[in-house]
Amino acid sequence: MEKEVNDHESCSHWHVVHRDTLPAKAKPIKAIWSFKQERAPDGSLLKHKAQMCAHGRMQQWGDSYWETYSPIVNMLIVRLILAIAKIHNLDSKAIDFVLAFPQADLEEDIWMDLPIGFQVNGQTEADSHQHYLLKLRADLYDLKQASYNWYEKLKQALINRDFKPSDIDP
User: Fold this and answer.
1) Residue 84: CB partners within 8 Å, gap ≥ 6?
2) What span, in angstroms and rounded, lies between the C-alpha atoms of 101 and 34?
3) 101 close to 142: Cβ distance less than 8 angstroms
4) In 3D, which of 55, 36, 56 has the Cα closest to residue 47?
5) Cα four-point dihedral sign 154, 145, 64, 124
6) Which of 42, 45, 83, 103 has its CA 20 to 30 A from that of 156?
7) Which of the 8 DSSP states describes residue 1?
8) How far is 25 from 159, CA to CA, in rounded Å?
9) Hey, is 113 helix, strand or coil?
10) 11 vs 103: CA distance, rounded Å
11) Nearest C-alpha neighbor of 63 from the set 24, 102, 110
């Protein structure tokens, strides 16, 4: 959990604000933790992972998000590209984007309660939660608009590098 919070803080995905600065109509959403176990191919446990998420079901359409649609790639296209790469002896690599969604731009103002275990300026966790919250600067997992914003960021980055969308699978 500490590594996840440190990763977000080092990338300035939020800033801590006093609850008094929260606009009157704004409603902070809850922070939740998602825990997973990463396993080796033989089934043995490699490591435990914690991911901080926003409780996106608390968001209201038209208030804290507008778009949610993001297309997914057709697996037939992926197989076709890999087959063409193999025929032409081209290298193909998989990419795992660490903290992918937070790399996208967040246009809406979203406030989030502090996650469990988060303390501000050496205060107790209870005092921190009572007086402070987070103003998000980047998408977090489970925000309604997170996948749409990530898709738009990735699409624009690919277009800027002269990639063109397929007519079959845009």
Assistant:
1) 90
2) 15
3) no
4) 36
5) negative
6) 83
7) -
8) 38
9) strand
10) 9
11) 110
